[in-house]
Write a structure and sequence with these properties.
The complex is a heterodimer of chains A (245) and B (234). Chain A is of the alpha+beta class. Chain A has eight helices and seven strands; from the N terminus they run E-E-H-E-E-E-E-E-H-H-H-H-H-H-H. In chain A, the strands form two sheets. In chain A, strands 2-1-5-3-4 form a five-stranded mixed β-sheet. A two-stranded antiparallel ribbon of chain A has the order 6-7. In chain A, strand 6 and strand 7 form a beta hairpin. Chain A is elongated, with a radius of gyration of 20 Å. Chain B contains eight helices and no strands. The chains are: A alpha+beta (245), B mainly alpha (234). Bound molecules: protoporphyrin IX containing FE, iron/sulfur cluster and FE2/S2 (inorganic) cluster. FE2/S2 (inorganic) cluster binds next to loops of chain A. Chain A: It comes from Phycicoccus sonneratiae.
């Protein structure tokens, strides 16, 4: 298939950027979206032009590095990561717009690559548990009710890709934070730091410049792991409990 | 990975979620008030006597513990405080959201719901200003055929005179449609913000409650004005 690509090019963090149009031909439907960009970059290399910078690591949908805004949809038209998106989801002759995640808290480093360090700092603020070192405890030492374990696992699927922020009209990171808080709040290991965690993480979230949540759910629709909006309710509940002291 | 020192609990009061809780709580005050107000308006169907007695009751309720109009003033103060809190948090979050994404997307679907809440809210604020001037503060009649103190001093007469004017009824229809949109998302959103929707079941129920409240409010509020416009109430 032949495609027209409109891609955001930006030489560095402080450089102005612009949309540049490229054509690619003979793209196979079985290629992943990133392989299609690899083909374009080989062409650019051959012509001696600067290849397009984009992030990826695992290319199997588990690391969360590869987020791109594709024609206005985070990770493109399917409910998956950009690396797991295939060209059969597009049609021959289509014009595809490719942009980086847009949020002040995710500054552009180059072209399509953004710095998601803000997520790491939110985790550093409270998204952890304290555990004694030494020999590992028995796996069944602390019993967990099945529904709580299921919900914790569901929330733990979040890969920190940032699609929720990218899709949110307010560039809010509540779905990401809700997933992390819910994951730990559902488990016995998360209890000792539960209240301190939520306060510190929410403070850090605001400090990073993310917006507030309007509960419209654009995040859950964009999330490649299908994290539901009810994790944000758990986040809000925990914060309210923490505030009551 | 290095970890940071935890913040003190009180600091989270000033965060975006703190603002949202303020917006949710004040919004729920409005919902209760609006339901009460709707009930009062429906008294118009029972005729002049019932409607005006109700308006008078609002002022004498609680006497002699409270002075004449005492409870009404309590309600007014609560509503005014809620309005200030609601609008303040709305504008603070709106400007924060604008700053959170200074470079916009070239291709992105616009978030209709968020825009409806914000611009719809501004419209409701203007409407409330107009509505209070018309029925509470100045008590003026927009009906050229019905003027004078007899109309202005009689709540029932003023309402009937007003809604016999088609453009005024249209304005109220528009305002109620805006209110319905505002409430259908707002009532759900408040429940989510207060942390009442932690299971998929509770989440679906919260959405349903939002739609139900907004449907009841629009229909209930629009019955008296439309009945007047079409001559069922004279
Ligand atoms: C078709 C719709 C409506 C009608 C016919 C209507 C009618 C009235 C009337 C007649 C009064 C004066 C009551 C009195 O002083 O005895 C009043 C007051 C008031 N209305 Fe409405 N109203 C409508 C919708 C709304 C809405 C949607 C809101 C707000 C969300 C609202 C907020 C108020 C407030 C705050 C007052 C002042 C209460 C006070 O302090 O006296 N109204 N309305
Ligand atoms: S909640 Fe979903 S969209 Fe957001 S960072 Fe986690 S996996 Fe990505
Ligand atoms: S490259 Fe790891 S999730 Fe896409």
């Amino acid at each position: 298939m032949n495609l027209t690509l409109k891609i955001w090019r930006q030489a560095g963090p402080r450089h102005p950027g612009e949309m540049v149009t490229y054509k690619v031909t003979d793209i196979s439907e079985d290629m992943s979206f990133l392989e299609m960009l690899d083909v374009l970059n080989e062409q650019l290399n051959a012509k001696g032009e600067e290849p397009i910078a984009f992030d990826s690591d695992c290319r199997e949908g588990i690391c969360g590095m590869c987020g791109l805004m594709i024609s206005g949809e985070a990770h493109g038209p399917e409910k998956t990561t950009t690396c797991q998106l295939h060209m059969r989801s597009f049609s021959d002759g289509e014009v595809i717009t490719i942009e980086p995640w847009r949020a002040n808290a995710f500054p552009v480093i180059k072209d399509l690559v953004v710095d998601r360090g803000a997520f790491d700092r939110i985790i550093q603020a409270g998204g952890y548990i304290s555990a004694n070192t030494g020999s590992a405890p028995d796996a069944h030492a602390a019993p967990v009710p099945k529904p709580a374990a299921d919900r914790a696992f569901m929330a733990a699927e979040c890969i920190g890709c940032g699609a929720c922020v990218a899709a949110c009209p307010n560039a809010s990171a509540m779905l990401f934070m809700g997933a992390k808080v819910t994951h730990l709040s559902e488990l016995p290991q998360g209890q000792p730091e539960r209240m301190a965690r939520v306060v510190s993480m929410v403070d850090q979230h605001d400090e990073e410049g993310f917006g507030g949540c309007t509960n419209v759910g654009a995040c859950s629709q964009a999330c490649p792991k299908g994290i539901p909006q009810d994790v944000i309710s758990t986040l809000n509940k925990d914060l309210r409990t923490a505030l009551r002291g | 990975m290095a970890t940071l020192t935890p913040s003190r609990a009180g600091t989270a009061r000033r965060t975006t979620i703190g603002l949202k809780v303020l917006m949710a709580a004040t919004g729920l005050v409005f919902v209760l008030y609006v339901l009460l107000h709707m009930y009062g308006n429906l008294k118009a169907l029972a005729g002049e006597e019932a409607f005006n007695t109700y308006a008078e009751h609002l002022r004498t309720i609680g006497e002699p513990m409270l002075p004449y109009g005492g409870l009404l003033w309590v309600i007014r103060v609560v509503l005014l405080a809620s309005l200030v809190g609601h609008a303040y948090s709305a504008f603070a979050l709106w400007s924060r959201a604008g700053n959170a994404r200074r470079t916009k997307y070239a291709a992105v679907k616009t978030a209709m719901r968020t825009a409806w809440m914000r611009w719809g809210g501004v419209f409701l604020l203007l409407f409330i200003g107009w509505h209070l001037l018309q029925f509470t503060i100045l008590k003026f009649s927009v009906n050229p055929d019905k003027q004078g103190p007899d109309v202005q001093q009689n709540p029932y007469e003023l309402v009937v005179a007003s809604f016999q004017v088609p453009w005024l009824t249209l304005l109220y229809v528009l305002a109620m449609v805006a209110l319905a949109f505002h409430l259908s998302h707002g009532v759900f959103s408040a429940q989510q913000t207060l942390g009442w929707t932690m299971t998929p079941h509770a989440y679906r129920r919260a959405k349903l409650v939002g739609h139900a409240v907004s449907a009841v409010v629009v229909v209930g509020f629009l019955i008296p004005p439309l009945a007047i416009l079409f001559g069922l109430i004279k």
